[in-house]
Amino acid sequence: MLPLSFLLTLLVLMSTCGKHLFYRDRKEWNDITPVPQDDNGRHIVNIAYSEEFVDAHDYFRAVLLKNELSERTFSLTSEILLMNPANYTAWEYRRRIIKEISSDLNAELRFVGSLIEEYSKNYQEARSFGRLL
């Protein structure tokens, strides 16, 4: 059986049919104040992040600062890692969440395996994470 968090992530991704549902528009995230990226004015080159990327990462930084280890943060890390599977911080945070919520490790190994398969050039973080499981 797949864990609830995995099913919720799939449901959110499928229900939007290719259209991102911004975290700022999700009722279950109303209690979180997003934390924008702060480069301290040191922009050598501005990176053109998509609005979806900025939205998800602003909420990711917020829950990371609060150290919230929950089903919803687990789902958020799924989306973050689908956007950037080389995000070491997201992998580490996800590991801590899994320890806290006792997620289904078999489903997690399938998720990691699918990312390794899809993004073979960025497999290092996913592979290291899989070893920790």
TrEMBL record:
Signal peptide: 1-18
EC number: 2.5.1.58, 2.5.1.59
Protein origin, superkingdom: Eukaryota
Pfam family, one: PPTA
PROSITE patterns assigned: PFTA (PS51147)
Keyword terms: Magnesium, Prenyltransferase, Repeat, Signal, Transferase
Cofactor(s) listed in the protein's UniProt record: Mg(2+)
Enzyme type, top EC level: transferase
A GO MF term: protein farnesyltransferase activity
Family under the similarity heading: Belongs to the protein prenyltransferase subunit alpha family.
Name of the featured protein: Protein farnesyltransferase/geranylgeranyltransferase type-1 subunit alpha
